[in-house]
Amino acid sequence: MNMFDKNHYYVEAKVLSNIRETSRVNTLVLKLNKSMKIEPGQFLMVWKPGDGEIPITPSLIQEDTVCLTIEKVGHTSNRLASLSAGEKVFLRGPYGKGFNLEYLGKYLLVGGGTGAASLTPAYLKLVEKNVKTLFLVGGRSNDNLVYVNKLIELNANIKIATDDGSRGFHGTLPELFEKVIAEEFFENVLTIGPEKMMVKIAEECYKKGIRCQVSLVRIVKCGIGFCGSCVLDPVGLRVCVDGPVFNAEEILGTDFGSYMRDDAGKRVEVTL
Ligand SMILES: Cc1cc2nc3c(=O)[nH]c(=O)nc-3n(C[C@H](O)[C@H](O)[C@H](O)COP(=O)(O)OP(=O)(O)OC[C@H]3O[C@@H](n4cnc5c(N)ncnc54)[C@H](O)[C@@H]3O)c2cc1C
Ligand code: FES
Question: How far is the CA of 262 from the centre of ligand 1 (A)?
């Protein structure tokens, strides 16, 4: 690991606009003072001096413009998601392994919560390669759906699931997923979302012989493989360098879907 690698220097980014997605989620449109080469699924460490630094997977990447779709879950995410036009943040990265989009065949993208936004760069890359895609987006209700308008604007082929039936399929995203793959075969699945949801998708893919790539969230502090805070037990894979995107079969049977480490390194149950 070379600490002088250019990816460890911060790039300054100015907020061009802050778009409200839902009551808990906002998208920051950022203008970078230096362009970054970010592959779909890779993440950035986003630092607001005085408020902390957190990992975020960009939801749009266009030369020196990057979008970050952020759910307000705690202190730093709340502060970042509340920034106004003209304010600055600092980005380091990109880090980790993104999606492998070289596999042949059709792709089914499954995004829960902010996952739909984080999958959008992969979707755009697949469109560029003329690959057939279907995008499944889910949320508790119509009011909780993230990035649906953006995906419609991008002409994505989408199906929506809401737990309360207020829009699209009445049921959970894994239920819609099972229905879709019973009707049509996809060679590839990409998923980002709540871990309990992703483990269901990954297990179903494993049973059906579908190649599935999962983007995993753990507590990322250094982002460069040093501190061990993002480790996946018991196999010792580090989300920040070995992931965040993993082939599902690599992590099924580990703590994926059941346990993670908290801020203090204690093993705790995955609840979402
Ligand atoms: C590779 C990666 C990509 C991510 N991409 C996105 C994204 O695109 N959009 C988005 O909204 N969120 C994303 N997250 C999750 C986001 O980083 C956390 O929600 C954020 O760090 C919470 O920080 P906080 O200070 O707001 O909350 P805290 O008060 O610190 O904690 C609130 C919750 O967030 C979890 N958390 C805290 N710190 C981290 C951390 N450093 N890494 C992971 N989880 C943490 C805690 O376990 C707790 O459950 C990503 C996480 C990873 C690892
Ligand atoms: S966050 Fe430090 S090793 Fe992964």
Answer: 11
| ∠ CA 216-220-226, rounded to 5° | 115
Counting ligands in written order, the one closest to the CA of 229 is 2
| Identity of the residue numbered 169 | F
Of residues 26, 7, 45, 1, the one with CA closest to residue 244: 45
Give per-residue pLDDT as tens, 23-32: 999 999 999 9
Q: How far is the CA of 242 from the centre of ligand 2 (A)?
A: 10
CATH assignment of 107-269, among 3.30.450.190, 3.40.50.1100, 3.40.50.80, 1.10.3720.10:
3.40.50.80
Please tell me the distance from the alpha carbon of residue 129 to that of residue 119, in angstroms, as a whole number.
16
Going from the C-alpha of 238 to that of each of 105, 130, 211, the distances in angstroms are 29, 33, 21
Which numbered ligand comes closest to the C-alpha of 146?
A: 1
Q: Which atom of ligand 2 is nearest to the CA of 228?
A: 3
Cα(254) to ligand 1 centroid in Å equals: 21
ipTM: 0.95
Task: Report domain 6-95's class.
Answer: mainly beta
* Ligand 2 center to 157 CA (angstroms): 36
The Cα 248–Cα 206 span in angstroms is: 8
Domain residue extents for the chain? 6-95, 107-269
Q: What is the mean pLDDT of residues 71-77?
A: 97
